Every structure is written in C-alpha cells, then in structure tokens.
C-alpha cells in the first residue's frame, strides 16, 4: 500500500474521490504536502446508506464473529507501523518515536477492546418469569475526531462501536485526515463493506454529520465549544451522544516531594505532544516551600528541551499542530507579556514558517489571568503558588472544566484525601496520562457528557433491550 499519495475516502468498502480537495499542511514547514478529499452531502449520504445496509449482517455475526474481524484489523496495522508513523509526523507534527507509539497503542487498544463483552443480564428470575436485559447495537454511529491524537482517539470510538454491533462513518479533523484515510483503505479487505466508512472534509462536514437523520449516535471528541453545538444538533432527533471535551487540568504539588525527582515527570505531564493533550496539566499549583526550586527546575528543563521538526532525530517537542492554534497560543503569551506577567522561556525554536513556539512558563500569574482561566492547548504553562490546602482546593475547582487532575506527594494517604476533593473525572497520584481500555474515562462539568472506555464506555454504544420471558406457555 502506498502511504505517500492517493488519499481517498472509504465508502462501502471502496475508494471514492471528490473533485474538491483540502490541503494538508505539515506544521513543521507551514506548507501543504498533500491533499485529502473534501466530502460533502452526497458522499455523506452514500456513507450513511452503506453503513445502514451493512448493519443487519454485522449484527448477525455476533460478538465472537465481530471480535475475530476486529483482532484481524488490529493485526493488519502492525506491519505498517513505520509508514503510519512517517505520515503521522508529516500531518500532525509529533516526533517520530511518539507518533509510532500512538499507532502501536491504537492497534493494541483495538485488540484489547475486542476481548470485552456485554453479556445478557437476568435481572429477575421468579417462578413465573425471567427478565433478561440484552445490550443491542444502536445503529449507524458518527465518529468525529480531533487533531491532537488522531489515531488513538479514533480507535477509542471504532473499537467499542463496531464490537457492539454498530456500523460507523468516521470524520477525522481537516488538519489530520491522512492516517485515518489510509487506515480505512487498509481495512477495505478485512471488514465487510459498509461497516467502517471514513470521509474527510472541510469545516462544513461536521455540522452536516450532526444534522444527518441516518445516525443513531454521535461520538465526539473536541473542544467544549464545538461539543455544545454537537449536543444542540443531536437534540433535533434525539441522537445519542458521547462528548469528550476540553480541560484545564490542575496538578497540586505538596511540599514533601523530591523536586529533582518529580520535576521531569511534571514537565512531561504538561508539555508532552507540545502540550496539545486534553489531559495535560494546564495549571501547576506548587506549594510555597518548594515553589522557587520547582520553577528553577522547570526553567532548566525548558531550556534543555529540543523543539523542532518531528521528523528529525533528537527532537522531543514538535510544532503546534495548526496555524489557528499557533495564533491562539501566541496570543495568550503576548497577552501575558502585555499584562506585565513574568515569563520564562525555553530554548530557541527553528526559524521559518513552521508553527514553533518556545516552551513558556508564566511565574505565578493572578488566578484570573487568561493564561490561567483558558485552556491553552499549547506550550505555555502557569506555575502558581499556594500555601494552604483549603485555598488550593478552592482554586483548582474554580473552573468550568472537570476533565482530570493530579496530586503529587510522598504521603499517599494525604494525596488520596486531597484527590477526593478534586472535581474531575480522573485524578492521578504521582502520575499523569494513565488510562486504559478497561478504565472508564469521563469529563465532569463542561469537560464531557457520557463515558469512553471500560464497560461503561462500551455500554454507551448499546441500548438496553428488556425481554420478559414467561415460565409457562400462554
Ligand atoms: P474542535 O472542536 O475544533 O474539532 C473537533 C472535531 O470536530 C474536528 O473533526 C472538527 O472538524 C469537528 N467540528 C468542528 N466544528 C463542528 C461542528 N459544528 N459540528 C460537528 N463537528 C465539528 O477541536 P480540536 O481543536 O480539533 O481539538 C482540540 C480540543 O479537543 C481541545 O479542547 C481538547 O481539550 C479537546 N480534546 C478532548 C479530549 C477528551 O478526550 N476529552 C481528547 C482530545 C482533545
């Protein structure tokens, strides 16, 4: 399979092209290096119709039959890891090893979810009847995916939706469509036609999908602002929705930590993938006793960080993924400077048209500064002092988002007690980014609606159908 060209939609198990195309830009150069099809209403209608036709046979395969094909689909990725990784770096910007890691993780995720089950439940078994709850597929699912983890976050939707017996039309972000298009091409010979369709397009395609009456569910990952639009559109015909949205995660660092030991881990939790992670630490609350030492350690790490083209050896942090995000993050940094806040920056970044921004630390800004209240989603991080637990709990929770957070301390009991008070879907202790196919992931407050992963996540691709079975014939 040729990964370097020939990017087509996959509809009904076959390639479909469009007259209009969308340029795909390498964020390390700022230049277009490929183009993807721009699907519109006609291609969307074809994809939904194909997915609908494929439903009965896919459902009839049963859990075991579908499991087998999904494992086969996961294994088909493995011989192409390097090709997927190279394409991933070109469209997304991340360093090669990390890109390969995401593709590997995606294949592993699919295999792991394929082993899951939602067996029938007998909720009543009396002398007269048995009441059985079955988990039925919903129908055709729309999957809408962002650009920051284009491979893995797609898999979080594909794996449970298809396993549960649904069929799918997936739309990647206009910024990162290529790996998704190639994955669908790879699967044309593995999955029955129409079970898995991928359509790329411009900004108009998402709203067309959420308005389409053929979808039973929308599984969306992206910003909170867009999530609200998805919910509104879905309300028109009561489509089911799962929304994984933005976050402004706080890490709380207690005074007993060993600064030299934890600083690199905290830094990684903030800046991995150039800080374009929904569950990155975006507000770093550090106890007064260790604040100066931690700030100095962070500044050292920022200066040592190698920012550059992800395709080059030794690069640790790639560019910001797209121009709009680059302008937003630059705006936050310029705004902080204009407000007179104290900024500490890391090493120089490559010259040219790439979307590079030096890692930027903001030294103890006020709690109402934009750099604290907004989700930066880029390499700028506020470090904030605290001295009382009550104060830091209040500040950490004073936020419309509630995705994740972390507590760092040698005293695990104290950390658990503090974690209990953080109003987010996930809290890590002395760690970050941990999740898994068996672990539910959900945003509290405006960070989400519904659950991905784990049995709860799988269940969201089904509806409970209850059958009353009498013990005596009528
Ligand atoms: P975005 O909301 O701009 O776009 C996400 C997807 O929605 C893209 O495919 C886009 O084309 C599509 N879209 C845009 N407008 C639409 C509309 N009106 N209707 C339907 N679809 C539409 O988000 P983004 O910039 O791609 O991603 C960054 C955001 O995603 C951040 O806020 C980040 O925190 C969040 N995110 C959340 C999670 C999570 O699991 N909670 C994971 C990754 C990213």
TrEMBL record:
<dbReference type="InterPro" id="IPR044086">
    <property type="entry name" value="LUC3-like"/>
</dbReference>
<dbReference type="InterPro" id="IPR016163">
    <property type="entry name" value="Ald_DH_C"/>
</dbReference>
<dbReference type="InterPro" id="IPR015590">
    <property type="entry name" value="Aldehyde_DH_dom"/>
</dbReference>
<dbReference type="InterPro" id="IPR029510">
    <property type="entry name" value="Ald_DH_CS_GLU"/>
</dbReference>
<dbReference type="InterPro" id="IPR016162">
    <property type="entry name" value="Ald_DH_N"/>
</dbReference>
<comment type="similarity">
    <text>Belongs to the aldehyde dehydrogenase family.</text>
</comment>
<feature type="active site">
    <location>
        <position position="244"/>
    </location>
</feature>
<keyword id="KW-0560">Oxidoreductase</keyword>
<dbReference type="InterPro" id="IPR016161">
    <property type="entry name" value="Ald_DH/histidinol_DH"/>
</dbReference>
<dbReference type="GO" id="GO:0016620">
    <property type="term" value="F:oxidoreductase activity, acting on the aldehyde or oxo group of donors, NAD or NADP as acceptor"/>
</dbReference>
<feature type="domain" description="Aldehyde dehydrogenase">
    <location>
        <begin position="19"/>
        <end position="466"/>
    </location>
</feature>
<dbReference type="Pfam" id="PF00171">
    <property type="entry name" value="Aldedh"/>
</dbReference>
<protein>
    <submittedName>
        <fullName>Aldehyde dehydrogenase</fullName>
    </submittedName>
</protein>
